[in-house]
Write a structure and sequence with these properties.
alpha/beta, Nucleotidyltransferase, domain 5, 10 helices
């Protein structure tokens, strides 16, 4: 009988171990705890709140956007922020669609989303018990719930956004938003590494290279150049290039995990670019916005 008992124990260990491995592989936060993590808290009826976890300052920053705020998208035109979930739900991806559009208009990576009408803490508890529509793994939820309980928190109210000139009459002003975001969401975990990036807009979409530049600058990278490719040198897929495998591994979190780019091209970046990373922005980058 003893061998049956130990066999059952062994089976349970394998099952639990397999679940932990699966959760770890799908995690967006665990293993990258030195970096800022941004997510969208999306209510089906209560609008959208941008949430940023800053491990350096040990602060959770929350920006609840006015429900009737009108935002624009390269792919979807203008719409109210409170309609994001409903628009995306027509294709069965309400949360993912809202996350993408918040990322696009704020010009910062927003890899995470959680659909929850109530509080952030309650929503994270639901993730742990498998009761939420989310991109977070259970391990992510556990770590973020710990941060919520241990970090300080700051809520940016609508009147502060109005005083800063970010929003007015239910419209937002992109340049003022970028100034506001750049001073509050800089990622020192990335910015402290002093990574220089050159960008070539090879998409054929006017301004997409500058949009990518805003993204990377807000994240903490040093964008040293943005220029357009020749019309006969356009491409569909975004490619990033670094000099060696060590740089590819070191920067993989940024360009693969946060932006969803494929593996980099391993080739020395030309001295004329004065950068560690060269990005050729393809037409697929429009999906970031």
């Amino acid at each position: 009988m003893r061998w049956i008992k130990w066999g059952i124990v062994g089976l349970l260990v394998l099952i639990v171990g397999g679940l932990l491995v699966r959760e770890y592989r799908s995690s967006q936060v665990v293993g990258h705890s030195q970096y800022r993590f941004n997510m969208a808290l999306i209510g089906k009826e209560t609008g959208v709140t941008f949430v940023s976890f800053d491990p350096m300052e040990r602060l959770v920053l929350l920006i609840p956007f006015p429900n009737n705020l009108a935002i624009t998208s390269r792919t979807s035109g203008e719409y109210s922020i409170s309609s994001l979930y409903k628009l995306g739900s027509y294709k069965g991806e309400g949360g993912a669609f809202a996350r993408q559009k918040i990322q696009g208009f704020m010009r910062v990576p927003v890899p995470g989303y959680l659909v929850e009408n109530n509080s952030l803490k309650r929503g994270l508890l639901k993730v742990i018990f498998g009761q939420s529509e989310t991109s977070l793994s259970r391990l992510d939820a556990m770590l973020l719930l710990y941060r919520v309980s241990r970090y300080g928190n700051r809520v940016v109210r609508e009147d502060e956004l109005i005083r800063a000139g970010v929003i007015n009459n239910n419209k937002y002003y992109p340049e003022r938003l970028q100034n506001y975001v750049g001073t509050r969401l800089f990622d020192w975990g990335i910015g402290g590494e002093g990574i220089a990036v050159a960008i070539i807009n090879a998409s054929g979409e006017n301004g997409l290279g500058s949009d990518m530049g805003d993204f990377l600058s807000n994240l903490g990278l040093d964008v040293v150049m943005v220029r357009s490719a020749a019309l006969n040198d356009l491409q569909d897929k975004t490619v990033w290039q670094v000099a060696n495998e060590d740089d590819a591994k070191r920067l993989g979190y940024i360009f693969q995990n946060l932006f969803g780019f494929s593996r980099p091209k391993i080739e020395e970046v030309g001295k004329e670019y004065r950068s560690t990373v060269l990005i050729r922005v393809g037409k697929d980058a429009i999906d970031l916005f």
